[in-house]
Amino acid sequence: MLKRAYDKEEDGDVVVRGVPSPRPRDAATLILVRRDQTQPRVLMGKRAGTNSFMPDKYVFPGGRVDPMDGKAVAAQELAPEVEAKLRVQSRRAPRAFALTAIRETFEETGLIVGRPADMPSAAPAGWEEFHRMRIAAVLSPLVFIGRAVTPPYRPKRFDARFFMAEAEQALIDERPPVDGAELSDLQWVTLSDALKLDLPSVTRFMLGEISERLDKAGVVEGPPFLRWSRGGHQTDRI
């Protein structure tokens, strides 16, 4: 019998050592940036304390890729250079990640990244509300800024793609975010204020990436890829 050792890492998850690590599941996150004040602000919310993955941490909206996300209707597709980077070491269609980020953002905040459109009567699972509202997702505003795989021994592991989008360009309207079961205390915060929140380590890392992109637009390196290998933690650029 395998011996199990339980402890908690800095992100608050229970870590089970001495057992095989679960295979990471594809996931996607959307970082919305507002520039309507002196300093740029990002949308963040607090995960429920009962959640087994990163409880009570402040994060960006996002979640697991569902099987039908790649079949959702889009009014505008991803930029070719974004598609190309998403294809690196991945078998899934690039648009599925962007659509997941948009669907999860809507489910967790009520904000819509989309445009009015004539929609088919049949909707992929999870996209019924978009069809009812006659709104199609828009993928073109999304920029791929990073990828991170949850470390081994966690009870849940994800292979997450992080997108950034300008809120004024991406959102359909100016409605405020609404707290839900997944995220509460939703707020637009400056990058410096965001760093004062209780953050997962990967979220803190991505805030640094956002800062670099906002300060040095057009000269930023490729998206970072954070993962674990036999030699330990590894960070490359895609």
Structure report:
- This protein is of the alpha+beta class.
- It has one domain: Alpha-Beta Complex (Nucleoside Triphosphate Pyrophosphohydrolase), CATH 3.90.79.10.
- Helices cover 22% and strands 32% of the residues.
- The strands form three sheets. Strands 3, 4, 5, 6, 10, 11, 12, 13 and 14 form a nine-stranded mixed beta sheet that branches. Strands 7-9-8 form a three-stranded mixed beta sheet. A two-stranded antiparallel sheet has the order 1-2.
- The protein is globular.
- 37% of the residues are buried.
Percent of residues in helical segments? 10-25%
Number of domains: 1
What's the CATH architecture name? Answer: Alpha-Beta Complex
Number of strands: 14
Unreliable stretches, pLDDT < 50, 5 or more residues? 1-8
Question: From the helix content, strand content and strand pairing, which structural class follows?
Answer: alpha+beta
Largest sheet: 9 strands, mixed
Q: Hey, roughly how much beta strand do the residues contain?
A: 25-35%
Number of helices: 6
The average pLDDT is 88
Radius of gyration: 18 Å
State the order of secondary-structure elements, H for helix, E for strand.
EEEEEEEHHEHEEEHEHHEE
| Topology-level CATH name | Nucleoside Triphosphate Pyrophosphohydrolase
In whole angstroms, the N-to-C terminal distance is 40 Å
In CATH, the homologous superfamily goes by the name: Nucleoside Triphosphate Pyrophosphohydrolase
Shape category: globular
The CATH first-level class comes to Alpha Beta
